[in-house]
Amino acid sequence: MIMAGNSSSMSVEDDDALLLQSRRRRYLIVRPEKGGIWDLLGSALWGGEACKFLETNDHIDHQVEVLDDAADRDEVYRTASSWVILVSVIARKIISTVGKPMEYTGYALDFFLNLLSLNGGLSGLLLNFLLGKVVIPERGSATFISTIGHLDGRIDLYNKGSPAPDDHDQLVQLLGGQDSSGEPNRALMDLCVMASKLAYENAKVVQTVVSRHWKMHFVDFFNCWNDFQKQMSTQVFILCDKPRDAKLILISFRGTEPFDADDWCTDFDYSWYEIPKLGKVHMGFIEAMGLGNRNDISTLDHHLQSGGRFTTNRDQGNGDWQKSAYYLVKKKLKRLLAENKDAKFVVTGHSLGAALAILFPTVLLLHQEDELMKRLLGVYTFGQPRIGNAQLGKFMAAHLEHPSHKYFRVVYCNDLVPRLPYDDKTFLYKHFGYCLYYDSFYIEQEMQEEPNKNFFSLRNAVAVHLNAVWELLRSLTIGYTNGPEYREGWLSMCLRVVGVALPGISAHSPINYVNSVRLGTTTQHACLY
C-alpha cells in the first residue's frame, strides 16, 4: 500500500513538473482557420497584422512569462506582420479548399494510368474493349502502380560497374558505408533514391520489387497514425539486404503524394515547437512522425520532453500513439539490430519523407537511444524541406558529421520543396548537413545551401522559367543521349509543360533525383566534357 501510494505521488509530481515545463515551452502555430478573406486582404493591402492567424504560449497562459525578453517579443510581433505568414495561410487555404477535388483527381488519374498500363496502352485498351477482355485495375494489388511510379517507371537498381543484385557479399561491400574522405557511397545513394521512390507504392508493390527485383529481404510496411490529421497518413517500409545475418537495414519514409492536400499543407506549414537544448522543430513533421498534436500541446511535451516515456495513464491507454511511425519503426529496428549483430541501418526519403528521415535519428538522439545511433550508417534525403532552426542544425552536426559525414542532403536544381519553410529573419528555418546540389546539367556541387534559397525571388524568376523550358527540351532528347532507361514518357513530359509555369513543382519530381544520382558528375569531372 505504501509503495502504491509513493508511486501515485511520484506520478502526480512528474505530471506537475511536466505541466510546469510545458508552460515554459515556446511554440508558434499558424492557424489558417482563424481568419477569413477580409483578414487576408487587410494584411496584404493595408499592412495589417497577421496575429489573428497565430497562436503562441503567450495566448494560452498569460500568467507565465514565455518570451524571455523584449527581443523575443519583438520577434513574435515581427512574425505577425510578415508577408511569409500570409503566403503560408493563403497556400494552405487554397489547398484545403481544393483538397477533395485533388483527392478525386488523384484516384481517377491513378485508375486511368493503371488501366492503360495493364491493357498495353491506349491501342491495347481499345482492342481489349472490343474483345471484352479489359483488365480492370485493383487498388492495393501488386500491379497497381502510383502516379509517381508512372512518372518514372524504373525499378531496378543501377548496376553499371557493380555486381549483380543477388551477389550479396559484393553488394554489401559496396553498400557498406562512406569512404574515408567522407564522400557519399554512390551505390548506397542509388539504393536510397530508388527506395525513396518506391515508398510511394502500396505494400504489395514494395514487397514485389524488393524481393524479386532487388533480391533483398522485405521486412514490413507500416501505415502510421497522425493524431492531428486523425488518420493513417504516414507510410514507411523496412528492408534488409538478406533474411539472416543481414549487414544492412534500410528504412524509407513516403514523401508528399501529388494529390494529397494534407501532405502539401504540411509542407507549407511554418508552425514550430521548441525543444530545450535541441532547437525549434517543424510541428507538422513532428505530427507526421506521430509525436504529438498541436490541438493538445501537452502531447508534444509528453513525447518530446519525457524521453519518449508515457507519463500519464491517458498516454498508456491511448493505443493510437503506439501506431505512430516513430514508435513502430523504433520497435522494429531494435528487434532487427538485436537479431543481426553486424547490421547497420540507413534512413531515407523524398520530400516529406526526407524530412521524416532526418527527424527520426533526431528524436532518437533526443531520447538518448545511444546504442541505436552507434549503428547508424547514414541518412540520405532527396528534395528535403527544412525541419528546424540553426540551433537544431548545430546539435545534429555534432552527431552526424564527426568523425565522418553520415547525413547527405541531395537537392536538384530549382526544386521548390528544399526552399521551404522560409529561411528569413522571421522564421530562421535553416538547412544543415552535407548538401549535394545538382544543376539541370546534372553537375554536382557540394555546398552548405542551395542557390536561390527562398525560391520566390523576382531576381531569379526569368532564369527559373527559362531553365524549365530547357528541362522540357531535355526530356525530348535524354533517351537518345543517355540511353533508353532515361527516356521520359508522356506523363513526365506533361509535368515538364506544367513546370514551364510552375518550375519549382516539376523540379521536385523523383525522376530528377534518380537521374542526378546516376548521371551526376562533379565539378572537377564536368570540365572534361
Kindly report the average pLDDT value.
Answer: 83
Query: Based on DSSP secondary structure assignment, what is the total number of beta strands?
Result: 15
Number of helices: 25
C-alpha-based Rg, rounded:
24 Å
Strand order of the largest sheet: 3-4-5-8-9-11-13-14-15
Q: Helicity level, as a percent range?
A: 40-55%
pLDDT < 50 runs, ≥5 residues: 1-12, 59-74, 161-166, 310-317, 524-529
Keywords: Hydrolase
Protein name: Fungal lipase-type domain-containing protein
GO molecular function, one term: triacylglycerol lipase activity
Pfam families: Lipase_3
Task: State the main characteristics.
529 residues, alpha/beta, 4-stranded antiparallel β-sheet, 25 helices, 15 strands, 49% helix, globular
Describe this structure in words.
Helix content is 49%, strand content 15%. By secondary structure, it is of the alpha/beta class. The strands form three sheets. It has a nine-stranded mixed beta sheet with strand order 3-4-5-8-9-11-13-14-15, with helices on both faces. Strands 2-1-6-7 form a four-stranded antiparallel beta sheet. Helix 5 (83-97) runs antiparallel to helix 12, helix 6 (99-118) crosses helix 7 and helix 21 (458-481) packs antiparallel against helix 22. The chain is globular. Residues 1-12, 59-74, 161-166, 310-317 and 524-529 have low confidence and may be disordered.
